[in-house]
Amino acid sequence: MINRIQTINQIKPIFREYLDYMSQFSLINDVESWCKSALKNLHLYSIADDRYIYILKKSDTIIGFAMVNKHFRFNSKGLAVAEFYIQKNHEKKGYGRRLAEHLFEKLPGNWEVAVSIKNKSALVFWNQVVSSYTDGKFIKEWNASFNGYGFVFNNGLKKTF
């Protein structure tokens, strides 16, 4: 089951797990300060109208989440997948694809998904999901300052790439 949530309380435990996972892809000198900053940023999702959190549940337990905002690295407008996580013991079972496609269906328009070059499994995942979802109608761009790729597409009727 996938639901949009309005407050961050439900997501805090799994968000910390996500931060631990993501720390392997960045050079972080002070993990605790980095986590505190990320949790402070998470709070913005409770108060800003242009940010969305979707949770994925299995048997009433949150096993993943997606956060959407308008912080762009490759696009100038639309929506961006800001954070995306499926717990390790639930990976490669279709849950991530289901969550991603749910986002795209609920929020049509311009999209970008930015992925660090260091996160090889995410690059494979997003390439497969976006390619399948768009029937190959997307752009994969490199951004040196971000050190990663962006998957850019439109799932609305107004513009196609």
Rg from C-alpha positions? 15 Å
Q: State the separation between the terminal residues, measured CA to CA.
A: 31 Å
Helix content: 25-40%
Oligomer: single chain
Q: Which consecutive residue ranges, at least 5 long each, have pLDDT under 50?
A: none
CATH homolog superfamily: Gcn5-related N-acetyltransferase (GNAT)
Shape: globular
- In the CATH classification, which architecture applies? 3-Layer(aba) Sandwich
H-E order = EHHEEEHEHEE
Q: Going across the major beta sheet, what is the strand order?
A: 1-2-3-4-5-7-6
Largest sheet: 7 strands, mixed
Q: Roughly what fraction of the amino acids lie in strands? A: 25-35%
CATH class: Alpha Beta
CATH fold group: Aminopeptidase
Structural class, judged by helices and strands? Answer: alpha+beta
Q: Work out the number of β strands.
A: 7
What number of structural domains do the residues give?
1
> Overall pLDDT, averaged?
88
Describe this structure in words.
This protein has 161 residues and is α+β, with helices and mostly antiparallel strands. The chain has a single domain, classed as Aminopeptidase, CATH 3.40.630. 34% of the residues lie in helices and 29% in strands. It is built from four helices and seven strands. It has a seven-stranded mixed β-sheet, sandwiched between helices. The longest helix is centred in the first third of the chain and has 17 residues. It is globular and about 40 Å long. It starts with a strand and ends in a 7-residue tail after the last strand. 27% of the residues are buried. The mean pLDDT is 88.
